[in-house]
Amino acid sequence: FEGEEYIILLPVEEEEQERSEVMILRIESLDDEHENYVGIDDEEVLQKVFDIFKKRYENEFDFED
Fold it and tell me: What is the rounded CA–CA span in Å between residue 19 and residue 27?
């Protein structure tokens, strides 16, 4: 999204729960072998990245509006 890469972390659950939250982090490359995951403070960026995630995985997850 806008030249940045993001990672979305999903909870590992043994039982099916009705609701789950995800964590969205920006990937910051340190060199060819290492990277950091950085929290995002901008709510607009978070929502746009989450919207992309929902569209790509709409057939694999049931998203609430």
Answer: 26
Other CB atoms within a 10 A radius of the CB of residue 26 amount to 18
Beta strands in 1-65 (DSSP E): 5-9, 23-29, 35-38
Tell me the pTM.
0.75
Q: Render pLDDT for 14-42 as a digit per residue (tens, 0 to 9).
A: 566 666 788 999 999 888 889 999 999 99
Among 53, 52, 20, 23, smallest CA distance to 40 is for: 23
Phi, psi angles (nearest 5°) of residue 21: -110, 155
